[in-house]
Amino acid sequence: MGARSRARNRAVDILFEADLREADPLDLLTERVGSTEVPPVSDYTVTLVEGVVAHRARIDELINEHAEGWTLRRMPVVDRAVLRLGLYELLWADEVDDAVAIDEAIELAKALSTDDSPRFVNGVLGRIASLRSACE
After folding, report:
1. Alpha helices in 25-69 (DSSP H)
2. What is the tally of helices (H) and strands (E) in the chain?
3. Segment 64-99, tens digit of pLDDT
4. With the CA atoms of 125, 32, 111 and 21 taken in that order, what torsion angle do they form, in degrees rounded to the nearest 10?
């Protein structure tokens, strides 16, 4: 697993935990950065969590619009975290290709969620990617 993939996984862990605890992801991130955890939190993890938080209202709006048959609150917490991260990279991380953002989110869903989650994540992100210019 590459450094960016590990950073994404760590960011999903932080976003997931913050959502479960109903805590501020930035506060949790600060705790993790200042701790002696091994491995340490990478700069890219910080960028991802900060980016998701900065764009969260729009990200959540897009998930609600494009997650056919699901509301944000009804979907598994890990799927929300993966989708939020994937959408941030898809729409605001210019250095990440769309296909890479989607593939990485699918891999996270495979590793961390249910058997149906990768297809669900792919569908939501794929729909948004096809409408990308209208979403930005």
Report:
1. 25-33, 43-54, 56-66
2. 8, 0
3. 999 988 989 999 999 999 999 999 999 999 999 999
4. -80
98 Cα distance to chain centroid:
14
Helix (H) or strand (E) holding 106: helix 98-112
> Nearest-CA neighbor of 94 among 47, 45, 57, 26?
47
Range of the domain at 56: 3-135
Name the domain count of the chain: 1
CATH of the domain at 130: 1.10.940.10
For helices 43-54 and 77-92, what crossing angle results, to 10°? 90
pTM across the whole model: 0.93
Q: Is 23 helix (H, G, I), strand (E, B) or coil?
A: coil
